[in-house]
TrEMBL record:
InterPro entries: Aldolase_TIM (IPR013785), FMN-dep_DH (IPR000262), IPdP_isomerase (IPR011179). It comes from the Bacteria. FMN binds at S75, S76, M77, T78, S106, N134, K201, T231, G281, L282, R283, A302, R303. Belongs to the IPP isomerase type 2 family. Mg(2+) binds at E170. Keywords: Cytoplasm, Flavoprotein, FMN, Isomerase, Isoprene biosynthesis, Magnesium, Metal-binding, NADP. This is Isopentenyl-diphosphate delta-isomerase. Involved in the biosynthesis of isoprenoids. Catalyzes the 1,3-allylic rearrangement of the homoallylic substrate isopentenyl (IPP) to its allylic isomer, dimethylallyl diphosphate (DMAPP). Its EC number is 5.3.3.2. The keyword Aminoacyl-tRNA synthetase does not apply. Substrate binds at R17, K18, S106, Q107, R108, Q169.
Length: 359
């Protein structure tokens, strides 16, 4: 893929898509309708007399060799527009302050339109964070290879590359890229030759245990389950659709996918040691704690961070403070000092009945 600016009409289409994604996610109802993340089926056993001082609680962790202040990932969201630049700037600044992990949106547009690369570049604001570059895996069938992936990593001075899998989104998106044939060998080649770890994630429909094992077998370093229960990209693309067929496709498959909690438990059953990120429908620190207790190493949130970042840097900072307080409260009220203790404590139990929503 050459670094040339495409014709104006193509460039406009790409930028409009990025802008549309932000607008739709913020303004339209694009959450899953009936399928949930599954965390509501789990409940912590309360400890009324914890044998610890709350100030002793330590939620620091490491992931892919990087020290983090909390097990939080600002999930991949955006880039390629001026609003995206502002969002990424605010997110990166706060991520540096709290030593959080951060991903950015798909950088394909930066390969095709190099003048937009700066809307993704945040390393100067966050020199110490765990930072993920990002590309749709299907682009390995559309002209991207090792050279382009190296460009994306170098563009950010990133610590790892996320390859995202989005077959449903591509099916619903008008003129989507739907040739997924033969991607596993190409992912395997990247894992072998790229000098940074390769992480594979879905975009909100989940990764099954069987697929996780295939990805691990070809050398993927870490997996982000990105399960169902949060933003439905089928609904997002339905909102953007230019014709009735694509619009209806998005609505039909609005609830397609594997719940996040289910993905975590099933992948952990077959791959006890793979670095594992839980994302998809997490909305607060209690969800983060449940994801960690189920076996995840990091918990990723997107929509809550997007809503805060569009508001202000202060709003992002306040969100992180709340998430950390919620997570620490879970540890305190289950008598656990560290995240590893929480994982090993057995204090999270599955309940068949879900509490009724407050009226």
């Amino acid at each position: 893929m050459t670094n040339t600016i495409p014709p104006v009409d193509a460039a406009t289409e790409i930028e409009n898509r990025k802008a549309d994604h932000l607008r739709v996610c913020l303004e339209e109802d694009v959450q899953f309708r009936d399928v949930t993340s599954g965390f509501e089926y789990y409940r912590f056993t309360h400890c009324c007399l914890p044998e610890l001082d709350r100030s002793d609680i330590n939620i620091q962790t490491t992931f892919l060799g990087k020290n983090l202040g909390a097990p939080l990932l600002i999930s991949s969201m955006t880039g390629g527009t001026e609003l995206a630049r502002l969002v990424n700037t605010r997110l990166a600044t706060v991520a540096q302050h709290y030593r959080l992990a951060m991903g950015i949106g798909s950088q394909r547009i930066a390969l095709e339109m190099p003048h937009l690369a700066s809307t993704f570049a945040v390393r100067h604001l966050a020199p110490d964070i765990l930072l993920f570059a990002n590309l749709g895996a299907v682009q390995l069938n559309y002209g991207c290879g090792l050279v382009e992936c190296l460009q994306l990593v170098d563009m950010l001075a990133a610590d790892a590359l996320i390859l995202h899998l989005n077959p449903l989104q591509e099916c619903v998106q008008s003129h989507g890229d739907t040739n997924f044939r033969g991607l596993l060998p190409k992912i395997a080649e990247l894992c072998e030759k790229l000098p940074v770890p390769v992480v594979v994630k879905e975009v909100g429909n989940g990764i099954s245990a069987a697929m996780a094992q295939k990805l691990i077998d070809v050398g993927v370093t870490a997996i982000d389950v990105a399960g169902a229960g949060g933003t439905s990209w089928a609904k997002v693309e339905s909102e953007r659709a230019k014709d009735n067929k694509q619009r209806r496709l998005g609505q039909t498959f609005a609830d397609w996918g594997l719940p996040t909690a289910e993905c975590i438990t099933e992948i952990r059953a077959v791959a006890p040691t793979i670095p594992l990120i839980a994302s998809g429908g997490l909305r607060n620190g209690l969800d983060v704690a449940k994801a960690i207790a189920l076996g995840a190493d990091l918990a990723g949130l997107a929509r809550p961070f997007l809503e805060a970042a569009v508001n202000s840097e202060t709003a992002v900072d306040e969100l992180v403070e709340v998430l950390i307080a919620e997570l620490e409260t879970v540890l305190f009220c289950t008598d656990n000092v560290t995240l590893q203790e929480l994982k090993n404590s057995g204090v999270l139990q599955r309940h068949v009945t879900v509490p009724a929503a407050a009226s």
